[in-house]
Description:
Blueprint: E1 26-28, E2 31-34, E3 37-40, E4 44-46, E5 52-57, E6 61-66, E7 75-80, E8 85-91, E9 95-99, E10 107-113, E11 121-123, E12 127-128, E13 138-146, E14 149-156, E15 162-171, E16 174-181, E17 188-193, E18 199-209, E19 214-216, E20 220-224, E21 230-233, E22 237-238, E23 242-247, E24 255-260, E25 266-272, E26 276-280, E27 287-294, E28 299-308
Parallel strand pairs: 22-28
Antiparallel strand pairs: 1-4, 2-3, 5-6, 6-9, 7-8, 7-10, 10-11, 10-12, 13-14, 14-17, 15-16, 15-18, 18-19, 18-20, 21-23, 23-26, 24-25, 24-27, 27-28
Amino acid sequence: xxxxxxxxxxxxxxxxxxxxxxxxISLMQYRMNIGNRTFLSDTxxxxxxxxxxxxxxxxxxxxxxxxxxxxxxxxxxxxxGDTLLQPIGTTPGTAFKIAATTLKNDLVTVAxxxxxxxxxxxxxxxxxxxxxxxxxxxxxxxxxxxxGSAILSFSLGTTYNIASAFLQKLQGTGFATIHIINPVNxxxxxxxxxxLTEGANTYRVVLNLTDGRTVVxxxxxxxxxxxxxxxxxxxxxKRNGQLNITNRWSETETLFADIYDVNGRKTSIKAADxxxxxxxxSNLSPGMYLLVFHDxxxxxxxxxxxxxx
Length: 309
């Protein structure tokens, strides 16, 4: 008894017609009158699909989250079974945890349910879990240089159940906290470390969850060169190993390293690129050598090199 006229002049020879539905969450039908005949469509649910995303993919649990939809009281969660999407639970909330043992395949989705009849739903497009770029809470953690400082950035899939976050730096044989985030109310964070040590600066992020568990990110290492603009490691280096030269001496010019033995004879010449250069020292006998750095014309500095058996 509540019909809304869409059009009085539809050309049915075109086989289709596009209309704008009312901005109303409700069960609806189409009705078409042709002459003295009336045609009714099946009942359908007019609503918006949930805008859901993968919050985290941990070893034992998967988290789905979505924005609430006004007028929707319950949501149904689906996962792909052997051949079809199967319902695995309902919730009035906007988050749902799925046990890893429940999942048979890599596909999930969320449907908004009609309060008039929960058999009717509006299902969002399915998402492939492994394509969402989320692991166990972390999307990424990386570092980059900025005028002699380290800019550390990490991105989370969700803040769900995170009590606090700790940015840590390797000092000696263990990690020490250099920055605390409490509460964690954003999924994107940046931090600048200006207290760099010569050589490797290694970082990680530790999340403390409300249930007492912890989640640890990957480690990120940035090489801070010495005042001359380069760093040689490892030194001493084993004869069957790789010698690395990190060069931040110049953004535009190539850095060269000549290797001399104790008798002053040049043994090899290597050009280190702007970031990292690694090469074998297997052609050098064990002993002490001298690295002489230059730009092709001018000598820039020297450093002792020890080759171990």
